[in-house]
Amino acid sequence: MSRGSVAIKVNDNLGHYFQTRKGVRQGDPLSLILFNTVYDMLAILISRAKETEQIEGVVLHLVEDGLSVLQYVDDTIILMDNDLERAKNMKLLLCAFEQLSGLKINFHKSELFCFGAAKANQNEYAQIFGCNVGSLPFRYLGIPMHHRKLMKRDWKHVEERFQKRLSYWRSKMLSVGGMLVLINSIRSSLPMFMMSFFEIPRGVLKKLDYFRSRFFWQSDEHKKKYRLTK
Q: Rounded CA gap, 174 and 10, in Å?
């Protein structure tokens, strides 16, 4: 928290001073530490609720006491077993966290996913949390999530980004060395994030090779050229 006097300068005219009572400057690295300090309280509240059996996590056979919350920066995933009463306890816990921390949870922007027997009570869960029901596959941190193996169509966005970065007009303006540097940088960065989680289909790999080869050998869109090597 910070206190002090602040004035806003507009077109070299200094306005009236006003008092600041809380918060930090925009971009201040301290804000991340403060946010994580407050956000850790949510994990503590959930842990205490599990000790009193008010809520129950998932995969009890893999994680001691069950897995209930995953947090990455300001993104949170809540996991719980199929139990409507314990779902109500979780909603009360989240509301209590709002009152204690002063943070506001936007339930309307959150999504609910039910699996197995819980799908029969999907509407009841949506009413409890006030969330929209999501559909698979969904994207989390840029990665498509699904309970089945990803299909070729799930890699479509990687192909489109790859093709856009290796477009015809770029090859006309680059030397041979420049094209090689661009191809290698695109090949290393764009698909690597997805490939670190999933095995890339053979057809998608051939499509990416085709884009690279066409970019290097065929700089003119309307003039077909022979590709001397892959």
A: 44
Q: What is the 3-state secondary structure (H, E, C) of the chain?
A: CCCEEECCEECCEECCCEEECCCCCCCCCHHHHHHHHHHHHHHHHHHHHHHCCCCCCECCCCCCCCECEEEECCEEEECCCCCHHHHHHHHHHHHHHHHHHCCCCCHHHCEECCCHHHHHHHHHHHHHHCCEECCCCEEECCEEECCCCCCHHHHHHHHHHHHHHCCHHHHHCCCHHHHHHHHHHHHHHHHHHHHCCCCCCHHHHHHHHHHHHHHHHCCCCCCCCCCCCC
What pLDDT does 1 receive? 37
CA dist 105 and 103 (Å) reads 7
Peptide bond into 137 cis (omega under 30): yes
Q: Which residues of the chain have pLDDT under 50?
A: 1-3
In the structure encoding, which two tokens stand for residue 172, read together? 């006309």
Note the pLDDT tens digit of each residue in 5-43: 566 777 777 777 766 666 677 777 777 787 778 888 888
